[in-house]
TrEMBL record:
Signal peptide: none annotated. Homodimer. Interacts with ATP7B. Interacts with ATP7A. Interacts (via dimer form) with SLC31A1 (via C-terminal domain); this interaction improves ATOX1 stability and controls intracellular Cu(I) levels. Keywords: Chaperone, Copper, Copper transport, Ion transport, Metal-binding, Transport. This is Copper transport protein ATOX1.
Length: 68
């Protein structure tokens, strides 16, 4: 499964909970959240565009860092 790394502007546990919520709702993903470094690594067959759009639902600034 492809692994993608994203930068998400998370500042607290609530932010990371929002990321967890939207990714679990999308389904078909395994992910790790690195709150101190504001990064989310996602294993998923979903397209990068779909993952970006999903992470964007948190209202946080999101950017794609590339394959991991």
């Amino acid at each position: 499964m492809p692994r993608h790394e994203f930068s998400v502007d998370m500042t607290c546990e609530g932010c990371s909970n929002a990321v967890t919520r939207v990714l679990n709702k999308l389904g078909g993903v395994q992910f790790d959240i690195d709150l101190p470094n504001k990064k989310v690594c996602i294993n998923s067959e979903h397209s990068v565009d779909t993952l970006l759009e999903t992470l964007g639902k948190t209202g946080k600034a999101v950017s794609y860092l590339g394959p991991k």
